[in-house]
Amino acid sequence: MSIGRPRDAARDRAILAATLELLAEGGYPALRVDDVARRAGVAKTTIYRRWPSKGEMVLDAIAEQLGDRSTEETGDPLEDLRRLLQVTYERLAETVAGRALPALSAEIMADRALAEEYRRRFVHPLRERARALIHRAVDRGELRGDVDPDLLMDALIGPALYRPIVLGVPAPAASASAIFDLVISGVGHT
Amino acid sequence: MSIGRPRDAARDRAILAATLELLAEGGYPALRVDDVARRAGVAKTTIYRRWPSKGEMVLDAIAEQLGDRSTEETGDPLEDLRRLLQVTYERLAETVAGRALPALSAEIMADRALAEEYRRRFVHPLRERARALIHRAVDRGELRGDVDPDLLMDALIGPALYRPIVLGVPAPAASASAIFDLVISGVGHT
DNA sequence: TCCCTAACGAAACTATGAGTAGCGTAAATG
DNA sequence: CATTTACGCTACTCATAGTTTCGTTAGGGA
Q: From which residue to which does the signal peptide run (chains A, B) (predicted)?
């Protein structure tokens, strides 16, 4: 097919694995491209031949851990929404990628293109799934008809980012269900 | 009292004002200490004589706009809580400091001491006020007794940070009331 | 008034880390 | 064996936070 020496996929894997390792050890601020290269046993130029910037490389590194949020569907939209929230909280709390994400966010937001890619790959697919579930729940009369789906999603997922970023403590995976119940049932005395 | 040439308070003000201006123009990532010095008509050394780092300087610069969230108390804890949330959303959405805060968070979190000071000055006072209001509301039977105050606060304030950081769009000040109603009343059909 | 002391400005400096350039070598295809 | 692209290596450029040095200025106290 193509001419010349082919790229070595093993090097891709080594680079991404080294990125995750270093992310776990020191977090995003301490992640140095030179260190990734050394850890992966690869030249720095090999990294920049594959990704245009450190940010893109990290995005690919965390993709595997964060990208796949498939859950089996039960047919009950509220139950599916709860499970989607649960697995999302779990990924954010229990994976290297999730724990690094808060510190990553500023770097991402500083670069428009990077931010767009991040939302396209991780945020929007998740929100579209949630939006569909919310609509089905409204149709079935399980949610109030005047609910703003975006507002509801913000209330559900907001704490998972707010806690690590602002408070510096993770949102435990167990809090997913608690948040879900709180938002669905409300906390007021009727 | 003290010996030698006294510090010029006008220079402090000029530096903090220049910081806010540049923050408004280009956001935190584009904020350069040299630019602040030039804009303030001051030498860079004068800045570093006052603050140990860029982060501390910015923290002081945003303090005035974010720090004072005093609202008059009505005596009704739920109403007071709503107003506290309202003014918080307003500050985050409508001040230079608030809009810069999301981009600032990573820088802050990268520095333990800075993060601690940030929480001590801005986060904890606000949460303690909210916590007191929640307890009073529970005592008066206006909130369910099994409410976890931290969880409730996270659900209320989370979206205000989640939207700008993750979605890249501000949380409108008007959404404060909507979030409040949603969380208090719940979205489920009883 | 005259020191003493600390603040100030200016310029040159260090340190760090992202990203690039040039080149010799290795591994594929034909 | 020739061509082409990947790879490693070394040495760079560039930007920016933070420092150092020193001559100058503006106060307070005797």
A: none
- Nearest nucleotide over every DNA/RNA strand to the A7 CA, judged by C1': D6
Look up residue B88 and give its amino acid.
Answer: T
pLDDT at residue A69 greater than cutoff 70: no
**Residue, of B23 and A29, whose pLDDT is higher:** B23
Provide the phi-psi class of B171: left if phi over 0, else alpha when psi is between -120 and 50, else beta. Answer: beta
Q: Please state whether strand C lies within 7 Å of residue A45 at its CB atom.
A: yes
Asked whether the beta carbons of residue A155 and residue B184 sit closer than 8 angstroms, the reply is: no
- Cβ atoms of residues B103 and B28 within 8 Å: yes
Separation CA B114–CA B44 (nearest Å) = 21
User: What stretch of H or E contains A1?
Assistant: none
Whether residue A36 contacts residue A22, with contact meaning beta carbons closer than 8 Å, is answered with yes
Residue ranges in chain A assigned as alpha helix (H)? 9-26, 33-40, 44-50, 54-67, 77-94, 96-110, 112-118, 124-139, 149-162, 175-185
Among A117, A91, A110, A105, smallest CA distance to A171 is for A91
| Domain residue limits, chain A | 9-63, 72-187
CA distance A182 to A85: 13
User: Does the CB of A9 fall within 7 Å of any strand C atom?
Assistant: no
In the predicted model, what is the mean pLDDT of residues B28-45?
A: 96
B16 touches B66 (CB < 8 A): no
The residues, any chain, with a CB within 8 Å of residue A164's CB and separated by 6 or more, are: A92, A99, A101, A102, A170, A171
What distance lies between CA A152 and its chain's CA centroid?
19
Q: Which CATH superfamily is domain B9-63 in?
A: Homeodomain-like (1.10.10.60)
- Whether chain A has a CB inside 8 Å of the CB on B123: the answer is yes
Residue at token pair 């408070």: A167
If we measure between CA atoms, which residue out of A60, A54, A61 comes closest to residue A19? Answer: A61
**Fold topology of B72-187:** Tetracycline Repressor; domain 2 (1.10.357)
Q: Which residue is nearest to nucleotide D6 (CA to C1')?
A: A5
